[in-house]
């Protein structure tokens, strides 16, 4: 029999994004409480939203190693690790089209409401602080959004003037390049969630964004197949094309059920009545067995993090079912080929004989 070896590391998990579960009632209103709740459900990691002051103080984390050590200790005492810090809301505010000013002011502190320039400056500093906080926590990956300037012009009617999209992405590049340089200084990646509503919502727009920031190596991808299924994009081929850029993974399910009344745009209906809607893990149409296989095949060894946004099931049930679902899809990477038993030392004379090659 062949000599056994230690298999390569597999995808880590299960983990959970805390943003959708944080609340004003215990145990969801403090980091110790929600971390223990997650651990009790079987999660081994937590992704922390830096925009929720009930769970995390980003300003303090960016400056204080002592505070970051305390945060790590709280999570360790509960039985979980920190997977990544999230700056989704702050990243969104790095670039906001005026049509969304009023709606997105709700994500920013009151002193910058009604002042888009001040809001952008605040958001930019917040995302930079997350790089320093991530390094203080001993991590090397964060997750975020790019924000959007061009998204209101997604559908080409009325016709877009020549240069509109190009200038929107050029401006995104101007805003993000200094942020990404800060991440480079700290040795930290940003996994941008490819998400409708952001200017980066599919593979083509990710390539445009990457070009706008000069191919910056810190501008990477937080892979979430739910957003691809709702666009009817091939989420498995996406991994084949962009696997080298994927540094984070949101495990979120979705379903798309078009009919004679609505399709991809879903007719302005409520989430529960849409043709495309988010579901709890296992209740939708995403082929997670294939996704975990592909990510494992291509060497992704980061965390598999539940993101829950189901339009039907309760968050408590979705979270309870999520940990065993993810655990059941984790693949222990093999350390040998299935036919190793038939192998042996290379014998070139035997090989030439098998091929009928004369000496």
Describe it for me?
By secondary structure, the chain is an alpha/beta fold. The protein is 39% helix and 14% strand. It has 13 helices and 10 strands. It has helices at residues 31-40, 58-63, 65-78, 88-92, 101-105, 116-136, 164-186, 203-212, 225-231, 235-242, 288-297, 315-329, 348-354, and strands at 12-17, 45-49, 81-87, 141-144, 189-193, 219-223, 246-251, 253-256, 276-279, 303-306. It has an 8-stranded parallel beta barrel with strand order 1-2-3-4-5-6-7-10, surrounded by 5 helices. The chain has a two-stranded antiparallel ribbon with strand order 8-9. Helix 6 packs parallel to helix 7. The longest helix has 23 residues, at 164-186. The radius of gyration is 23 Å and the shape is globular. The two termini are 32 Å apart. Residues 1-7 have low confidence and may be disordered.
Features:
single chain, 359 residues, alpha/beta, eight-stranded parallel barrel, two-stranded antiparallel ribbon, globular, disordered N terminus
Q: What is the end-to-end distance?
A: 32 Å
- Sheet with most strands: 8 strands, parallel, barrel
What is the N-to-C succession of helices and strands? EHEHHEHHHEHEHEHHEEEHEHH
Q: Order of strands in the sheet with the most strands? A: 1-2-3-4-5-6-7-10
Q: How many alpha or pi helices? A: 13
Mean pLDDT: 95
Backbone structural class: alpha/beta
Overall strand count: 10
Low-confidence stretches: 1-7
Bin the strand percentage: 5-15%
The rounded Rg comes to: 23 Å
**Helix proportion of residues, in percent?**
25-40%
What overall geometry do the principal axes of the alpha carbons give? globular
